[in-house]
Structure formats: C-alpha cells, structure tokens
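tl;dr need the bound structure. longer version: we got a ligand (cytidine-5'-triphosphate) that a collaborator sent over and nobodys looked at where it sits. i said id run it. heres the input, straight from their email, havent touched it
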Amino acid sequence: MADTRSKGQDSLSEGGILSGCRIIVGVSGGIAAYKTPMLVRRLREAGAEVQAVMTANARQFVTATTLQAVSGRPVRDSLWDAAAEAAMGHIELARWADLIVIAPTTADTLSRLAAGRADDLLSTLRLASRAPVLLAPAMNNVMWDHPATRRNLRRLTEDGCTILGPDSGPQACGETGPGRMQEPEALFAAVRDCCLSIPSWGSLATPVRSTPHLDGLRGKKFLITAGPTREAIDPVRYISNESSGKQGYALASAALRVGGEVTLISGPVNIAPPVGAKTISVTTAQQMNDAVQAQLPATDIFIGVAAVADYRPAEKKDQKIKKLPGGEKGLRLLLVENPDIIAGVSSSQNRPFVVGFAAETQDALRNAREKRKRKGMDMIVVNDVANPDIGFNSEENAVAVIWHGGEEKLPQSSKAQLAEWIIDRIATCYVDQLAPANPESVAE
Ligand code: CTP
C-alpha cells in the first residue's frame, strides 16, 4: 500500500477518521443484507474507500444499484466479468484491500470460507488477500447452533478471521435466538477499530486523534469494566440486568484511539472485543472485583461502566430449584451485598483517576452528584434510563458528565460518538490535574 494516503485527522464527528482506508465489503445472501448499505454509508462518511462485492445469492436480498450508490463504485460480483477484470483484476483487488468485512456472512458462506474454497469472486478475494477478515454471521438460530457451523467458526477463528456477533433476538424466520447480524453501527465500530490497528495504515502507536490535551493520554493505562454481571441462583438461573456492554466497549475503542493501553474487564455480552484491547471475561461481580483489584496497581485511569449487580443470592443451589408444592406462598431468596468495585478503587492507595457511570430512573443529576461524592469518583457520567429509546441495549445514549467544579450535558448520540466526547473530557480533567489524585476530590 502506498504510504502517501492521508491518515485520519482529529474529529469529534469521526468524519475522515478512515480517510484512505480501503475496504472490501462482501455481501452474501441473507435477509440481513438489507442493512449492509447502512454500513457502507457509515464507512464512506468516515472517509474509507469501499468496494462492494456480492455473491450470486446476495442479489436476492439487496440490489447492486443500492450498493453502488452508497459505495460510489460499481459493484463486483463475478470472476468472469471481463470489463471489471480488465479495470482491476481480482488479484489486484485482493492486494488493494486493507481489510475485508463480509456482512452478512451466511451459514453457506461460512462453510465455503472455512473449507478455503475459491469458487466465486468473494471467496477468491479472501483467499488471495493478506488483509484482516471480519465476518458478521447472520442465520437462523438453529443453524447457528449446529455443530457444523460451530466447527466452521472454530476453523475460521484459527485461520485468523474475526467473528463479529451475531446478536440475539427476534429473527426474520419468526424464531428468537442468536443469529441476527450485528447492527450497522456496531459493525462500523469494529471495522473502524480494526482499520486503526493496521500498522501500514493507521497504527495504534500513531493515534488518529491527536491534540495537546489528548496527547496526555498517550501510553496511559486504562482499566475499563463493561457489561452486566450474572449472579447464579442455581445451575440454570441467575440475576442479571439489561446492560449490553456497548458503551464500555465504545470507551475502550476510544481510549485505544488516543494511544491508551486498554484492559477491558467484561461481563457476558454479545459483542466483539475491540482489536488492541486486552480483554478479561468474567461472570460475577466478585470475579469482576477480583480482576479489577489484580489489574489496579498498573492503572492510570479506571472507568467503571459495568452494570454490576449490587446483590447476589446468599448461596448458589447445587441443583435446580423445584417449584414449591401447592399452597406454599412464594419463594424467598436471601440476597447478600456484592463488593462495590468502584468505591474499592477510589479508596485504594495510589488510586487512579476514577470515572464512574450511573444509570438513574429519577432525579438523575441530583442522584449522580451525590453518588460521585459518596463513591469518591473524579468524574461521573449519568444517563437517564427512564427513556426506553436510549441507554441500556440501544445504539444511542444521552448523558451528562459531572466532575469537581463542572457539569456538561452531551447531546443524544451514538455510543461511539459519546465515548469520544467522554474521553475528551477525561483528558481535560486528567491532564490539567483538575481532579486526579487531587485531595479535594477525595475530601469533599
Ligand atoms: N458499581 C460498582 N460496584 C457495584 C455497583 C456499582 O463498581 N457493586 C459502579 C458501576 O460500575 C458504576 C457506578 O458504580 O460505575 C454506579 O453504579 P450504580 O448501579 O448506578 O450505583 P449503585 O451504587 O448501585 O447505586 P444505586 O443505589 O443507585 O443502584
């Protein structure tokens, strides 16, 4: 690849962040293909050059005209198109690509890729390219669970492909379960992060976002918690919450983009970890607390985004709890308190800069101001989860940021966008020494 291509520039709107990155967006034949033009549009808005490549079956679900309109290039779909091959042969096209993303990847395409076949343009490009390959599977939940699909996924992962999703939920076939293609915004974030980690294009060591105050975060060690925790009741039941992990993962990506070293401690979620972050998977609040404590000595900035369960069942039954015999009124479950992870971080020796989140359903600002002080946080980000259209499990959020001596409401935006802004505010507070390890923030 030529070194002369312009790298992205600092921009809160993300415009231009992928300038010059060359991406093949493969489309195979599943109903989720109707969402792929949205992904292509997001990549183009971010400055990427996009070549759409369809399989024969993809044409049943989305038109080449649509993909051509959003990508700004004629769509490629055949190894035997003489005119297209004359303009750029398939090997040349494979070399051109910095990254290949296939969305949706159907069960059949997964199987053909796992077998290393090269019987159409898309599979040939994948085989003839050294670029990273991201696959966004989409299929019926029974097909997804089938041992053959599991085997194909294992093989593709071993071959170095990254699997994005799938999400779980209602499916076009009328069933519910895992197999929905991730939403375009989530796919965009994964593709963007992967592009930014490609050394020949935009290395993490050369952060794309760079201003004097953001530069102060370069090389800093971020520890971020994300997602829900699960507290077991018996072998098949647990207490948990609606957290999707999206905001925490978006913050991890945003911290990577300013040159931070990121450790992400995640509860059970259905999203792919950001490329470049060290990810530690946990299930319970106690495990999350242990992992945080183990990483704490090497942490400059702690961001607690996880929706940690405040209580867990006093004991986990070894056997499934049976329904009580008739006549008994209700089942009592004794809950005991979990450790408050963030309060533990705030009160630790050599404490890092501490950022917490608060999801409130009433008096959001007042409760959050009080919570920041009570837990000794340097900054708190609060969202009002009473609005069902934003926050938990949705793509967008609207938050306010509160720190010592200041408050700011951020407009409703994508979680990726909000993450950029929050990192920006952290940089200002951290670098200007307004709050970190500052006695006033602890003494209030
Ligand atoms: N948090 C934590 N450990 C807990 C509970 C919460 O570290 N056991 C962190 C969350 O990650 C978040 C912040 O504390 O950053 C606020 O979480 P929230 O659930 O709003 O606070 P609670 O202390 O549980 O207060 P509430 O009574 O409002 O639930």
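gonna send this back to them w/ a short note. The longest strand covers residues 353-360.
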